[in-house]
């Protein structure tokens, strides 16, 4: 049960950051017998699923590094990453009691949503800066975090579960601040644009 909980938490959290990379890595590791997935997640090791995940992971690799477009990508994936995280968390329990799987799905959706919203909010703040290198640094950091999280989920379940508790506490503290920062940044941009347009109109007069 500890391994199943760790797997569900790791998959759901990682899917909130990089769904396609998560599915790709887990599927490949299962095919190589590095890890063993429960039967309920055996489809992730299908060559078709691995191929689709590899293609989408490659697309996301570049989309996530383009300033502004990455925020649009995140907005669309709000409706993909969170449900996928819930499904992966439920599937990690195998053929458990339906009530327990429902609880796992809710917890997985919460983890995936927290990871996704923290990522999206951080990216929105980064995009307020004209410096483009920060997008590449942030994206590469997220890739590394996904790999570390999945490794802990499979090989150090206690560490992973403790990390997830810490992450939820951090997300609860950070998300309101990220939201206020994004709102303030956009208000500042709107005010700057308004003043620029006003000065341009004054010059024409």
Estimated structural class = mainly alpha
Parts with pLDDT < 50 across at least 5 consecutive residues: none
Shape: globular
- Please give the count of helices: 6
Mean pLDDT: 87
Strand content: under 5%
Order of helices and strands: HHHHHH
Alpha-carbon distance between the termini?
Answer: 74 Å
Largest sheet: none
By DSSP, the count of extended strands is 0
Number of domains: 1
Rounded Rg: 20 Å
Helix percentage range: over 70%
Walk me through the structure.
The chain has 205 residues and is an all-alpha fold. α1 crosses α5, α3 packs antiparallel against α4 and α4 runs parallel beside α6. The longest helix has 48 residues. The protein is globular.
Key phrases:
205 residues, single chain, mainly alpha, 6 helices
Task: Furnish the topology, listing elements before pairings.
Blueprint: H1 2-31, H2 47-63, H3 69-92, H4 98-126, H5 133-155, H6 157-204
Helix pairs in contact: 1-2, 1-3, 1-4, 1-5, 1-6, 3-4, 4-6, 5-6
